[in-house]
Amino acid sequence: MIETERLRLREWREDDWEPFARMNADPRVMEYFPAALTPEETAAAMERGRAHCARHGFGWWAAELKETGAFIGFIGLAVPAFEAHFTPCVEIGWRLAAEYWGRGLATEGARAALRYGFEELRLAEIVSFTTVGNVRSRRVMEKLRMTRNPADDFDHPRIAQGHPQRRHVLYRAISYQLSAIGYQELNGA
Ligand SMILES: CC(C)(COP(=O)(O)OP(=O)(O)OC[C@H]1O[C@@H](n2cnc3c(N)ncnc32)[C@H](O)[C@@H]1OP(=O)(O)O)[C@@H](O)C(=O)NCCC(=O)NCCS
């Protein structure tokens, strides 16, 4: 379990299913995905998440607001299941219920997840990607001081050719031990 000032990133529980399904059915949350998820698709996603954690020892963690104990979404690290020019790799990602947006929670949780990836998992690099127009998610990547090289942009192989969300941007973070960005800076100091 990872704790930040306002968040707990933890293993999934059965009672996360309902708020998770509600979040995945919300068109605002799923604006930059091909479609909102049906309850069956959410159940399948939860199962895939469990299998990923069992296999790798890390994954999308359930994000809980410490103040209320509410499930607010997920933040975590995962191994993408598709092939692209930057795979195999570990990605960092996030999805929060809309009522929790705009309070810096994604950035706060992701900063701790990055630290976990570098310090505990000893990863040399962590990437993040999203469709070009997802400015909120890109802003989180930028606040984490991840960097984008336009030459890394790619067409997501799981999204149909010609689909407006197929083009993706890739951001990278390299371990502070390898980078000019110091530990303090990575932690937002
Ligand atoms: C992406 C997401 C997790 C961000 O969560 P959050 O807790 O609101 O993120 P933060 O508050 O840490 O940062 C969001 C930043 O985006 C900025 N932002 C929000 N709306 C914006 C807009 N329309 N245009 C530009 N920037 C915007 C915010 O101002 C903030 O930046 P700032 O701190 O410099 O002001 C959340 O919007 C979400 O769950 N979206 C749907 C799922 C999704 O797209 N996930 C990512 C898939 S790759």
Describe the structure.
The mean pLDDT is 94. With 189 residues, the protein is α+β, with helices and mostly antiparallel strands. Strands 1-2-3-4-5 form a 5-stranded antiparallel sheet, sandwiched between helices. Strand 1 (2-3) and strand 2 form a beta hairpin. Helices cover 29% and strands 24% of the residues. The structure holds coenzyme A. Coenzyme A is lined by residues 29, 32, 93-96, 101-107, 130, 134-137, 139-140.
Question: What tags apply to this protein structure?
Answer:
5 helices; 189 residues; single chain
Write the layout of secondary structure elements.
Elements: E1 2-3, E2 7-10, H1 17-24, H2 39-56, E3 60-65, E4 71-78, E5 91-96, H3 105-119, E6 125-131, H4 135-143, E7 147-148, E8 154-155, E9 167-174, H5 183-186
Antiparallel strand pairs: 1-2, 2-3, 3-4, 4-5, 6-9, 7-9, 8-9
The site of coenzyme A has 20 residues, from β5, α3 and α4.
Count of helical regions: 5
- Spans of at least 5 consecutive residues with low confidence: none
How large a portion of the residues is in β-strands, by DSSP E?
Answer: 15-25%
Task: Please tell me the overall pLDDT.
Answer: 94
The separation of the N and C termini measures 23 Å
For the largest sheet, list the strands in their spatial order: 1-2-3-4-5
The kinds of small molecule bound in this structure are: coenzyme A
Mass-distribution shape:
globular
The radius of gyration is: 16 Å
Secondary structure class reads alpha+beta
